[in-house]
Every structure is written in structure tokens, then in C-alpha cells.
Specification:
The protein is of the alpha+beta class and 214 residues long. Strands 1, 2, 3, 4, 5, 6 and 7 form a seven-stranded antiparallel β-sheet that branches. Helix 5 packs antiparallel against helix 6.
Length: 214
């Protein structure tokens, strides 16, 4: 639901190609990371693209979601997206990565409370919990009154997986948590975490093959 001061929803994003999207499985894109939204005009249509914290484009929304986000921008709202999961679908060949973001947009007059709300939301999503971000007027009031400490009790389930789709990551694993330590200067954690991530991705793709998908 959108109010004059807030818009929240989960939305699917797409990637350009399997090769370019492979970065999503690595160390620079963790479940619970907060992304910026940048608009680019493509063939006369304004499309919302996602930028990670390292200023790299990782994917884009469809025209409908982009249009809704563009309206939020026009109303001078802060636009935030939190990575909820990354998936891989083998069809059509050669396969592609995609995922879902929790969108949280709010007016700057409520910035402090909702900045805190986004930080708390990101932690919960990183733990594999998907709070309902479609707050409505009552939820918006609770966020503001609590200074961003209130979080929704209602949860949104992961979408049903279609045949030929593997969930690559939907929460921060032990290896991904090690990445945060690596970013603080522990190089050994960084190398080990990369190895664990690649092993997890390989296992997910192998699972599709073992089921006769490939």
C-alpha cells in the first residue's frame, strides 16, 4: 500500500546476462544489503536500476515497478531496496539470475525514523526473515512513533519455486557473515568466505542437474 508519505513492497528484479549477474552470488552482494535506486532512460522508458554499496549496477526492475518508484522520486521520497534473495533459473538457455528486493520509500520529513527502520529491516532480512513492508497508515505511524524501532510482525513467504529454479541465497550464511569481518580487515576470512560461497552456488546448480533439469 502507498500513502502520501510511504510506499513499501517486495519486487522482483532482473539481470542483464548470466555473466554480468554472477557478481550477485559473490562477496559484494549480501542478503540484507541496502541498495540505491538510479533511473536510466531506455528506449524512451524510465527504468529503475539497482546499485550496490560499491556503486555497481546489479539489476533492474520492470517498467511497472520502475513507474511506481519514479512517482515516489517525484514526491521527493527516499528510495531504498534491501536484497531479500537471489535465485537462478536455467530456462531459457543459458539460464539467468534474478531476485527480489524489499522496497522502502518515504518522505524526508520522516527520514530519521525510517532510516532506522531500514537498518532494522535489513538485519531481519539478513537473518532470513521477510517482514511485510506494506505498512499502511497505522504501520507508518508506529514506525514514526517508535523512532524506527518497531518492525512488522506479519511475514511474507518466499515465492513458490518453479521447475528449473534454484534458490542461491535467501539469508546470510556463515560465509557471508565472515565477509563482514573480512571488510574490517581480516583477509583470511575473505578468502575462506569466497570459497564457501562458490561451493554453495555449485551445490545449488548441481542440484538442478541431479534432478534432471539440465
Amino acid at each position: 500500500m502507498a500513502t502520501s508519505d510511504y510506499f513499501g513492497s517486495y519486487a522482483r528484479f532482473e539481470t542483464v546476462s548470466k555473466k554480468e549477474a554472477a557478481v550477485l552470488v559473490g562477496a559484494d552482494n549480501l542478503v540484507g544489503d541496502v541498495y540505491g535506486i538510479v533511473f536510466l532512460v531506455e528506449e524512451g522508458v524510465k527504468i529503475a536500476w539497482l546499485k550496490n554499496r560499491f556503486d555497481k549496477f546489479v539489476g533492474h526492475f520492470d517498467a511497472e515497478v520502475s513507474r511506481r518508484l519514479s512517482l515516489c522520486e517525484a514526491h521527493d521520497m527516499e528510495l531504498n531496496a534491501v536484497l531479500s534473495f537471489v535465485a537462478y533459473t536455467e530456462s531459457p538457455e543459458p539460464g539467468h539470475y534474478w531476485g527480489e528486493m524489499a522496497l522502502v520509500c518515504y518522505t524526508r520529513k520522516n527520514k530519521d525514523a525510517f532510516d532506522a527502520f531500514v537498518r532494522n529491516l535489513a538485519v531481519r532480512i539478513g537473518n532470513g526473515v521477510r517482514p511485510d513492508v506494506d505498512l499502511g497508515e497505522q504501520g507508518v505511524s508506529q514506525v514514526i512513533e517508535s523512532g524506527g524501532e518497531w518492525t512488522p510482525a506479519k511475514l511474507i513467504p518466499l515465492p513458490k519455486r518453479s521447475a528449473g529454479t534454484a534458490m542461491i541465497k535467501s539469508r546470510r550464511s556463515a560465509s557471508e557473515r565472515m565477509i563482514e569481518q573480512a571488510r574490517k580487515g581480516n583477509k583470511g576470512c575473505y578468502v575462506l568466505s569466497w570459497a564457501m560461497i562458490l561451493a554453495a552456488v555449485a551445490a545449488a546448480i548441481f542440484g538442478l542437474k541431479a534432478c534432471g533439469v539440465f
